Amino acid sequence: MAEIVGCLMTSHVPAIGSAIARSAQQDPYWKPFFDGFKAVHAWLERARPDVVVMFYNDHGLNFFLDKMPTFAIGAAPVYHNADEGWGLPVLPPFRGDSILSWHLIEHLVDANFDMTTCQEMLLDHAFVVPMELLWPQGAWPVRVVPIAINTVQHPLPSAARCHALGQAVGQAIKSFPQEARVLILGTGGLSHQLDGQRAGFINKDFDLMCMDRLVNDPAALTTYTNRELVEQAGTQGVEILMWIAARGALPGRARKVHSNYHVPISNTAAGLLLLESVDAKARLRAA
Ligand code: DHB
Ligand code: FE
Predict the structure, then answer these.
(1) What pLDDT, in 10s, does the model give residues 165-203?
(2) How far away, in angstroms, is 243 Cα from ligand 2 center?
(3) Which atom of ligand 1 is nearest to the CA of 264?
(4) What mean pLDDT value characterizes the chain?
(5) 179 alpha carbon to ligand 2 midpoint, in Å?
(6) H or E stretch including 183?
(7) Which of 112, 130, 232, 264 would suit a FRET pair with 35, their CA atoms being 20 to 30 Å apart?
């Protein structure tokens, strides 16, 4: 049976990828950010996930404004990264898990989520930068299932809908009959705005409130409209939708394993949150 071993949320700023490419992790600018991942690496050794299901937002590499699915899911045996113009090296391909992908698709469509299914999908920085952060040695020890949520072209799906999508993904994973240790990822945010009059906007109070609610009361975040999220977190801070979806996939009550918050990385408030399901842990211990 498949098991969700944890849920990790992180920012995905492209400059992180370029810092990794330059081995700048210990530079004073980067150290407080990269040091936040030491505890994650130690946890990964214990949790030993073999599949990553990741909620992320494509920024124009795979989908563009002419064709923009609200929710898309990969069902490919292999996924490639490609040059987006950020000057980042193109990373080695990622092994898919098409059996799990199709299981999720069946379940999600059955649960009235009209997913766009992608048997080819280029993965942009929002997917690959978090993978590099988790596995800096570069050989990916996990299979992957990417789930893309539109946060580029309005109208965007609501926080409530993204949370419900995450919950449906969590239920689908629970019913997957094969052995799999699944790590849920949500990438993006926290507060940032890259252009317009408020370029450079950061809202630490709002970010920390979100990180707190994501642990104990994620439903509280589903009451925000996207207009309110943009107001509070900035135009691109609306990527918090990915964190809300990821939290939905984690069954029951959550325990915070680790967190970090560092401002700024490029134009972004960089957040990191690692959660485990309390209820799943208790069930496992009882078994
Ligand atoms: C930045 C942040 C993002 O989330 C992104 O997708 C691109 C750039 C930044 O802060 O530079
Ligand atoms: Fe982004």
Answers:
(1) 999 999 999 999 999 999 999 999 999 999 999 999 999
(2) 12
(3) 10
(4) 96
(5) 33
(6) strand 180-187
(7) 232
